[in-house]
Amino acid sequence: MATPINSSIRYYRRGITKVLWVPTIASMSAPSRAELNAGTALEGETGAMAGWQTTSGTVPTPALGSRFTPVVGGEITAADSSLTFWASKDGDDVRTLLTREATGFIVWMDEGDVEAQTMDVYPVTVTSQAKVRELDSASQIMCQFAITSEPAENVAIPAA
Asked: Residue 29: is it exposed, middle or buried by C-beta count within 10 angstroms (0-12/13-18/19+)?
């Protein structure tokens, strides 16, 4: 009998996941604790998020000797990504931090900032700060991001 996959310890993301804006990281595959600490924690003002995942395409590799067309892994792309924040009535909010064309890194610590757990590091450029205007909702700012190169995924979180 095959060995079963490990049972997951399921969790509710709110209150656990950390998301950071980090201006500078020398090595995406091994950010230092000092670099992470120099960042800004965003989760306290984040009301929504979209994207923040990579996908791989496939390339068909047909051969004349077969009617079956096998495929191989192809390009890796990142989804359009955004973070939506609560707007402040006095304007002192995310708009002063994530300005258009700012470059840096969004770091996702899905299971929290826990040593040896994993994080994903996305190199990004802020592309917009859209004001979300709805009649019966609290005011929000949606920051959209261009992911500028392949993210480093499942990187070990350094000791505090």
From this structure: exposed
